[in-house]
Specification:
Length: 422
């Protein structure tokens, strides 16, 4: 048994024991513990920002991109927002024990389907230290123990956040092992988590959630023997229909791309109806706002100074102030382009024509589809879900922003009066 395997086995055994306790805790206890954790984060603001500065210095020296540095960076406002996110989770309806379905069979057998925790969840993530707080809060409220493995670039930030969180949780009845941080940056620990199906001497991890770049997610999907809730690229589109209001289109396109370029909900490709009369103004507006726009041949006739888009651009998540733009043949052209190049994350239409919008909303197969709104709303907090553990782009178990309900499963409970199947 390798050191990494032994370490993960120890973590999973502790997590399983904590999960058994968590599954039975009353809502009030979990909520009180999360409020205490939020208070502990606020009290530790200076220490967290100082730890983050160490990470930022190392990441800058290592040449991390501006987008990754933005994801890594914490200041007082971001720490306070993190604490508010934890407190918000405490105020959400507790899904554990919720009745999903009830039926009485002809023989009098009563069957109820209720929500229960998944158990032990492993979170493997890069750059974003806020995931440490978000994931722990969501997991605890949904009755799960969580094993957190952040990236080496955020190790000091994650340690400071984790220490504050656990101090608040443990002081109010939640086992300290309910939220464990993998203490090493050795990549072997990731591999050990991916195969922690109970055969390595510890307890099984019930679900792995990767949050990071394509390389991380691809590795998780290729190596995991544990079920995976994946979030791949955010190759998100905004389609501006010929019926769109120009002022609305300008505002939505600019916000979708430039509000924060490094988030997974940022627009990467702008699709413009050939019949939209102000296509050039949309492209010029992005360019003048500081975005590098890579254009197709039709748009290049209006903007010869701009870079021509290559085939690879339509399949690229830039996470930077870069966007590709192309003209399409109406809503059907937009739908076809998204089907070829989209990542099933978030896509939006700007249109005044409700029939066109309904067609787009029905036929675009993405986890989030929006009408007359920025793709930057792809966020659990904006959906009223509190913090999110990620945005799932697959079709099974959970899809879109994964919050409390997405971290539960269900079981059937039968109430009989002596029924037998003779």
């Amino acid at each position: 048994m390798t050191d990494a395997t032994a370490l993960v086995a120890d973590l999973t055994r502790s997590a399983r024991a904590a999960a058994r306790t968590l599954a039975t805790l009353p809502t009030a206890t979990k909520a009180s513990a999360l409020h205490a954790a939020a208070d502990a984060l606020r009290a530790a603001e200076a220490a967290i920002v100082a730890a983050n500065a160490v990470d930022l210095d190392k990441a800058t020296a290592a040449g991390l991109s501006g987008a990754l540095l933005d994801r890594l960076r914490l200041d007082g406002a971001r720490v306070r927002a993190m604490a508010e996110g934890v407190a918000a989770v405490a105020g959400l309806p507790d899904p554990v024990g919720a009745l999903i379905d009830e039926r009485v069979r002809p023989n009098g057998l009563v069957l109820r389907r209720i929500r229960v925790p998944i158990g032990v969840i492993g979170i493997i993530y890069e750059s974003r230290p806020n995931v440490t707080a978000d994931a722990a809060a969501l997991a605890v409220m949904a009755g799960n123990a969580v094993i957190l493995r952040g990236g080496s670039e955020a190790i000091e930030s994650n340690r400071a956040i984790h220490a504050a969180l656990v101090s608040g949780l443990a002081a109010h009845g939640v086992p300290a092992d309910a939220a464990q941080l993998v203490p090493t940056t050795d990549r072997a620990a990731v591999g050990a988590m991916l195969v922690a199906d109970g055969s390595g001497g510890g307890d099984a991890i019930d679900l792995i959630v990767p949050r990071g770049g394509k390389g991380l997610v691809a590795r998780v999907q290729a190596e995991a023997r544990v079920p995976v809730l994946a979030h791949l690229d955010g190759i998100n589109h905004v389609y501006v229909d010929g019926s769109a209001d120009p002022a609305m289109a300008q505002a939505i396109v600019r916000d979708a791309k430039l509000r924060r370029t490094g988030v997974c909900g940022a627009m990467e490709t702008l699709l413009i109806d050939r019949d939209y009369p102000q296509a050039a103004a949309l492209v010029a507006g992005l360019s003048e706002a500081g975005c590098e726009v890579r254009v197709d041949a039709a748009l290049a006739r209006h903007f010869p100074e701009l870079t021509r888009a290559s085939d690879a651009d339509w399949d690229t998540e830039y996470l930077d102030a870069i966007a590709s733009a192309t003209l399409v043949d109406g809503v059907d052209g937009a739908i076809a382009h998204i089907a070829r190049h989209g990542s099933h994350h978030t896509d939006a239409i700007v249109a005044a024509d409700a029939t066109v919008a309904d067609r787009f909303l029905a036929q675009v197969d993405s986890a989030i589809v929006l009408w007359n709104a920025s793709t930057q709303f792809a966020d659990g907090g904006e959906f009223g879900l509190g913090a999110e553990i990620g945005i799932a782009t697959g079709r099974l178990h959970a899809r879109g922003p994964v919050a409390l309900e997405g971290l539960t499963t269900y079981k059937w409970i039968g109430y009989g009066t002596g029924q037998v199947r003779g």
